Amino acid sequence: MIAYKLMNQDFTTHNGFKWEIGKKETIDIPGAELCSNQVFHAYKSPELAVLFNPIHAYYRDPILIKIECDIVADDGLKIGSKWQKPIELIPLPEITARERTVFAILCAKSISHLLDAPIEQWDDWANSYLNDSNSPDARAADAAANAAAYANAAYAAANAAYAARAAYAAANAAYAARAAVAAYAAAAVSIPDFDALYKSVSNYIRR
Predict the structure, then answer these.
(1) Could you tell me if 3 and 69 are in contact, meaning their C-beta atoms sit under 8 angstroms apart?
(2) Which of 114, 44, 33 minimizes the C-alpha distance to 76?
(3) How much is the pTM?
(4) What is the pLDDT of residues 165-203, one digit of tens each?
(5) 91-97 — which CB contacts under 8 Å span 24+ positions?
């Protein structure tokens, strides 16, 4: 399978692991648990790699590599592989503030059913933002924060044990992380296809 992997500028990843274009790397450790030394990590699309970077590896100045790999684990956000082979360096996709915000809103909306009652003020704002093609990017930071807050509320309803983790990310990371944390929260309640959800962003951007 073709997938996408973020790295530091020197082609290193977690714990300084060094990659080379064209060289296949394999993990022989038993198991297939994500966020462990049992697998290598990657993403199904370049856009998801960029969107989730602030809440995953958080590379400060990443490069993006197209890879070949197998898939032994998949949590909806990232995949895990027993082997990966870097193919080529490709450009990072440019994702605007408005695109991040729309993605965060769509993720939050996808899990809004977990709340005991709707948050009408948020719903009114979110629907207005999605349908207003003239919404300036200057509003995006507030928009992302509101979307993340809504997602955190639903996340807490679904799994209180992890609520603090999402709240910590929203409170302590940059704007981009606030936008992405809504997606991270949604993953806990099984949004099946984040790539498809991101592709729907363009439908709102064109309005």
Answers:
(1) yes
(2) 44
(3) 0.73
(4) 343 344 333 333 444 455 555 555 456 677 787 888 877
(5) 91/64, 92/46, 92/50, 92/62, 92/63, 92/64, 93/46, 93/47, 93/50, 93/64, 95/47, 95/50, 95/51, 96/137, 97/137, 97/140, 97/141, 97/144, 97/175
Residues 54, 59, 61, 62: what is their CA dihedral angle, to the nearest 10 degrees?
Answer: -100
Neighbouring CB atoms inside 10 A of 155's CB total 28
Return the structure tokens found at 60: 């400060």
Structure tokens given for 38: 């049992």
Tell me which residue has tokens 């909306």: 109
Considering only the C-alpha atoms of the chain, give the largest distance between any 2 of them, rounded to a whole number of Å. Answer: 53
7 contacts 20 by C-beta, under 8 angstroms: no
Distance CA 178, CA 90 (A): 26
- Pair of tokens at residue 187: 């993953």
- Domain ranges for the chain, please list them: 2-90, 97-205
Question: pLDDT value at position 63?
Answer: 98
The span from the CA of 27 to the CA of 29, in Å, is: 6
Q: CA–CA separation, 177 vs 173, rounded Å?
A: 6
Residue 199 tokens, joined: 């592709």
Q: What pLDDT score was predicted for residue 153?
A: 54
Structure tokens that stand for 177 in this block: 């992380």
